[in-house]
Amino acid sequence: VILFLGRFDPRNGLSTLIEAFKRIKARGQNAQLIVVGDGPLRSLYRRQAGGDRDIVFVGPVLHGRPAYYAHSAIYACPTTKASFGITLLEAMASEVPIVCSDILGFRDVVQHGREALMVPRGDADALANALARLLDDVTVRNRLGRVGRQRALEYDWRHVTSAVLEVYGEVLLASTVAAR
């Protein structure tokens, strides 16, 4: 199972993922694409899927997202523009390997070959190749998932909170010294 989770917005790259998935199926790969999300482009993406029974549109999911990650072999995030990869962290916390676009916002969260396979944004061929590689290689999938899980722990609120408080402390100290 390949999971897509996101709003149906062109920048989230669902068209590219559907095209990549069709290429994977044409190669004879046994896979299913689960699409979680919704938006004004719902009918466009359903038409693009062309009635393929292996492309399942779930609709919006507000609660229960962890279950979708837990039942997926790969999380695909072909987004073309993002400031931060919160869904990448969700997948990593669930120990799910990632195939995502190589964009600035994601480079702060994952590194190619460490927690994810990163592909040029909008490149359906590269996306299909990376997905097929992970579908074929359980060892790489498991390694990316384990490393991703460890990396996700760095974003635990206990770590993040102390880092934010430290920055505030430095700012307050600097302003106190400057005021003297």
Write a structural description.
The protein is α/β, with parallel strands linked by helices and 180 residues long. Helices cover 51% and strands 14% of the residues. The protein has a six-stranded parallel beta sheet, with helices on both faces. Helix 1 (14-26) crosses helix 6 (124-136). The chain is elongated and about 70 Å long. The model has no long low-confidence stretch (mean pLDDT 93).
In a few lines, what is going on in this structure?
With 180 residues, this protein is an alpha/beta fold.
In percent, how much strand structure appears in the residues?
5-15%
Largest sheet: 6 strands, parallel
- Overall pLDDT level: 93
First-to-last CA distance: 61 Å
Structural class: alpha/beta
Helix content range of the residues, please? 40-55%
Overall number of strands: 6
List the secondary-structure elements in sequence, H or E. EHEHEHEHEHEHHH
Trace the largest sheet across and list its strands.
3-2-1-4-5-6
Low-confidence stretches: none
Shape: elongated
The Rg value, from CA coordinates, equals: 18 Å
- Count of runs of 4 or more consecutive helical residues: 8
Descriptors:
single chain, 180 residues, alpha/beta, 8 helices
